Structures are given as structure tokens and as C-alpha cells.
Amino acid sequence: MQTVRRVAVIGGNRIPFARSNSHYARASNADLLGAALDGLVARFGLAGQRIGEVVAGAVLKHSRDFNLAREVVLGSKLDPHTPAYDIQQACGTGLEATILVANKIALGQLDVGIAGGVDTTSDAPLALNEDLRRTLLQLNSARTVGERLRIAARLRPHQPFKPEIPRNAEPRTGLSMGEHAARTALRWHIDRQAQDELALRSHQRLAAAYEKGFFDDLMTPYLGLTRDQNLRPDTSLEKLGSLRPVFGTSGPDAEQATMTAGNSSPLTDGASTVLLASEEWAREHHLPVLARFSWSETAAVDFVHGDEGLLMAPAYAVPRMLARAGLTLRDFDFYEIHEAFASQVLATLAAWESPEFCQERLGLDAPLGPIDRDRLNVNGSSLAAGHPFAATGGRIVATLAKLLAERGSGRGLISICAAGGQGVTAILER
Ligand SMILES: CC(=O)CC(=O)SCCNC(=O)CCNC(=O)[C@H](O)C(C)(C)COP(=O)(O)OP(=O)(O)OC[C@H]1O[C@@H](n2cnc3c(N)ncnc32)[C@H](O)[C@@H]1OP(=O)(O)O
């Protein structure tokens, strides 16, 4: 059995995130992930090198994407003997890929690996309706002319040709992520003002980080885009307050709807990558160590039969991870909580402050308590940057590692909610 080794986060690279159906409308998952990987390879001089593994994924994938990570590696300047494969854990994909690579490095199974994620809602796969799809598949495998004619006869003009467009919805409830989050917002009494303030801060902080040049060595421009397109440095509480609610707007609680396009993350296209290695590998290759990857945890909630909110699993994963690591919620210099929706971040924080939740749901004697909000998403998060589902984890890992490197020492918490009632969390240290 190998001794567990320390895992270094060497750096990351992403492309600027674009609003859906705009700047990257003609680009595919492979194009976007390829661009993020090319930038990483160039930044860290990896051309021609055989990397232990590249692990990446996309939430929305075409069948033509096949093993997307491997296809992207074959199109890159990495040594083609680099193994690569896809994983999918909804919006936790990028972080889960990082955890997988980090764990293999820790166990001595890899010396260096790349984690990544990509999504483009502009190029989402469309499926034919089930009847038509099955008929066409049968037609394709028919062996005789007679058989072909018999099957073709079933293709009648009245056959519905309407495609099935992927919805941002939970298969078991039919509700969108936003509708689920709206229910959670009501349950935790998250008001509109608090959501809009969080959204405003996200834009202001992301804008300030760009001004400081924070992303200069974390991002490569792509197709002429140099900054996250969703960023609105000029937004204000007045503007945000004027937007009409878009989720939770029907039913008996419609009057209390608070979630708008401004305090919800937008549909986004983008990709990110992160380079991880053993500390020895980093030293041998004269590469910096921004931070160490130390702990991770996943959790799932039963939002189908139970009464827990769809996006509340991080509220469970974080305390479990803290218990394992022997830490409290206050032992962090930075908190990176993915802003799927402002209300979801605020509901998670409210749960950790609630004596009832912490006792009844987490089995704790005392609440986890509040966090210092000045340490939360200090360079903005998904409300401002956008949220290309599988790419968000890589964005956050690279951002947090660099924040820790700039600070010189410290500890950061990552928390990402994911569809299917899941949550993926991790700790970086320096
Ligand atoms: C998937 C997982 O596993 C877990 C998760 O992360 S869950 C989260 C997954 N993501 C989602 O569910 C995406 C949710 N978002 C959406 O569906 C859509 O973005 C949305 C329905 C909220 C809005 O869509 P839209 O109507 O096309 O937005 P958009 O046109 O950009 O904005 C509407 C208006 O608000 C304005 N606006 C938006 N943000 C603003 C801001 N920050 N400041 C000022 N104005 C703003 C826009 O300018 C626009 O105004 P006009 O109508 O005058 O042009």
C-alpha cells in the first residue's frame, strides 16, 4: 500500500465564459475544452509530455462527443499516449474530476494529471422523439428491401417530428433547477434584497479581480472574448431590484417570488482545466505549487420523497468533511460557494446558522454558525462569471488556489451544489 502523498494544485486555465447563444454559439464542447486545454499546455510547457491522466466531462453531451476528454487530448499538443476519459456529476463534474485526479496522485497511481470540464447550452444535443428514433434505428438495421419497406411504411406524414429539447429540469420532478431553488428560498425565508445584494457583490468583485489582473494567468482569450461576457460592472441594486421574478411565479406563493435573471446564474458556455501533480513532480518540472488539495466530500439529499431542497446537499457534505478534517466552519480564509442562485447560497448559509437544522438534520449539538461574508466568493462567482455547468469546478479550484498563493498561507472551502440532489465539496490549503 502506498503512503498518501501531498497533492499540489499547480495552476489552471479557462476560457472566458460566454452567455448562451452568443459568442461561442458555433463552438462545440470539444472546441471549448480544447481551447482551455491548449492554454494550460502552453502556460505550463506541457507540449509533448505524457500526462498521467486527463479526466474531464460535460453535463450536456452529444453522442458524437464519445470519449470527449480523449478526443480533446488527441487534438492537443500533449503526447497522444496520455490516457483520458469523461466523468459526469452534473454541476459538480469539474470538482469531481479534480478529486479523482487528486486521489490518484495521493495514492501514488499518478504523478501528474489534468482535470477539466466544459458545457455549452448553445450546442445542446436534440433528440428525436422516441417513436421516430426507434423506427429510424430499425430501418438502419433492416436486412432486406422488404423489411426496409415495411418499416419505412410506418414513417407516416403525421408522425410527430418534434424533437426533444433538453430541459434544465429534474427528471423525477419535472421542475427546473430554478423552480426547486424557489421552493427552498421560501422555506428559508430568503428575501429579494439579500439575493440582489449577493448578486451585486458578485459582479463588483469579479470586475475588481479583472481590474487587478487576477485572471491574467488563469485565462486564455478565445474567439475574441477576453472577459466573462455575463459580467456587468455597471449593474446596481436599483437595476437588479427592477427585474421581474422568473422562478416560483405560479401557484399560491407566486406573490412571494424573488428569483430573477439578475440573482440566478445565466445559461453559459465555457470550459476550464486544472493541472495537479505530486509535489515531487512539480519540483522536478520547476513548476509552482499554488495550494495543496487536502479534503473532499460528497453528499446527496432525498428531494424526491423527502422534504429537503434539491440544491441543499452541500449543507450536509461540508459538516461531514469538517468532521473528518477536524475543522470548524470558521477555520477558513476563503469560502467559495458556487452561486447557482443567490437564494441557494443564502439558504445554505442559513441552514448552517440554524440550531434546528444543525441538530435535527446534521445531528450536531450546536449550529455550525455564520461565516465571515467578506471571505465569501471574494473574486465573484457564478452569478457574475456565468455557470457552464461542468466547467464551474475548475474555475473555482484554480481561483481559490491562486487566492491562497497570493495570501501566502491559509485554507479555503469549496462547495458546489449539483442536480440530482447532490453536493461536492473540497478543501485547499497552503
Ligand atoms: C445544474 C446543477 O447541477 C446545479 C446548478 O448549478 S443549478 C443552476 C443551473 N442553472 C440554471 O438553472 C440556469 C438558470 N438561468 C436561466 O434559466 C436563465 O438565465 C433565466 C431564466 C434566469 C434568465 O433568462 P433570460 O430571460 O434569457 O435572461 P436575460 O435576457 O439575460 O435577462 C433578463 C433581463 O434581466 C436583465 N439582467 C440580467 N442580469 C442582470 C444584472 N445583473 N443586472 C441588470 N440587469 C440584468 C437583462 O438585461 C435582461 O433585461 P432586458 O429584458 O431588458 O434585456
Strand content: 15-25%
Helix content: 25-40%
What CATH architecture of one domain do you see?
Answer: 3-Layer(aba) Sandwich
Oligomer: single chain
Unreliable stretches, pLDDT < 50, 5 or more residues? Answer: none
Q: Helical region count?
A: 14
Radius of gyration: 22 Å
Q: H/E element string?
A: EEHEHEHEHHHHHEHEHEHHHHEE
Ligand inventory? acetoacetyl-coenzyme A
Structural class per helix/strand content? alpha/beta
- How many DSSP E strands? 10
Named CATH topology of one domain: Peroxisomal Thiolase, Chain A, domain 1
Q: Biggest sheet, in brief?
A: 10 strands, mixed
The pLDDT mean sits at: 95
Distance between the termini: 26 Å
CATH class division of one domain: Alpha Beta
What is the CATH homologous superfamily assignment of one domain? Thiolase/Chalcone synthase
Q: Overall 3D geometry?
A: globular
Keywords: Acyltransferase, Transferase
Family: Belongs to the thiolase-like superfamily. Thiolase family.
InterPro entries: 3-ketoacyl-CoA_Thiolase (IPR050521), Thiolase (IPR002155), Thiolase-like (IPR016039), Thiolase_C (IPR020617), Thiolase_N (IPR020616)
GO molecular function, one term: acyltransferase activity, transferring groups other than amino-acyl groups
